[in-house]
Amino acid sequence: MLSKLIMAILPKMPQSFVWLFSKKYIVGRSLEEAISVSQKLNEGGCRITIDLLGEFIEDAQEAMENKEAYMKILDELKANNINGGVSVKPTFFGLLLDEKMCFENIREVVKKAHSYGIFVRIDMEDSQCTDRELDMYEKLHTEFPNTVGLVLQAYLHRTMSDVERLEKNIHSPENPINIRLCKGIYVEDESISYKKYQEINDNYVKILKKLFDIKAFVGIATHDKNLTDIAYKLIEDKQISQEMYEFQMLYGVQPKLRRHTLSKGHPMKVYLPYGKDWFGYSIRRLQENPNMVMHITKSVFRF
Ligand code: FDA
What we know:
This protein has 303 residues and is an alpha/beta fold. It is built from twelve helices and eight strands. The C terminus is likely disordered.
């Protein structure tokens, strides 16, 4: 009830007020701030991945500007010797306007990243994008070995068959597929997605086992302690090398669990969203995830 009320009110509030709610989860408005936080996290033993926030784009010019902004992030990561890479959302590069243009934009980013030895993760968006993002990943994985990865979502019924498709088409010991496995954040129809907590977690574990078994690189992206506990055990039982996995968490979310995972000696990557478009992003995230509203509210009002 309280979450719904806060969600309804937030978009009408002044940005400075919403910033109070969001700042724990957004690294800052500028690239300088993102680099500075990256340096601190690197010092604390975490890798990072930077995500430039943005609203839905309307034309090719905006897609081009976003590409240029990512080129600049790559330059700064290299110049500052940051242990980390970038995460890209294909719609931000024009996926829903012109697929070919989007591919060329992302390809340029990946090409530059490859020349710098920096990793690029293709975030997974809603289900209208899934096939297109898989196709894009297959092409880039082959052209730029060990440079690019994809996200898969455990809440989708199709995800196991997507892993099998990638295994068959592009996976090899020299150039293993690199998958960030998350639960999935978008609102999907129940005909294509699991809705219940336990069903999503069961599918998560099934896919995690499969990825370990085929020797893919896995980014275990979750703040769910039930899942991190299972992952620790699988890593131990299956003797998974630290070269082949890392835990991944969002900036500001469950810092205790992050510290706990690090203290057990596991590699950790932190996802860092930044940018001047933080307002729209925050409102959307808050509307998508009512739990987050409560979480943020608790952290601000300390109840
Ligand atoms: P779950 O939702 O069960 O949460 C576990 C615990 O963490 C709960 O206590 C919950 O309240 C808390 N929590 C979780 N998320 C929180 C948040 N944002 N703020 C405050 N508390 C929170 N999704 C997607 O569709 N495409 C993508 O590309 C990505 N990329 C991605 C990268 C990384 C590094 C992470 C960690 C997550 C994503 N996600 C994503 C989001 C993911 O799909 C999922 O929605 C969230 O991680 C929440 O799921 P959990 O696995 O954390 O479990």
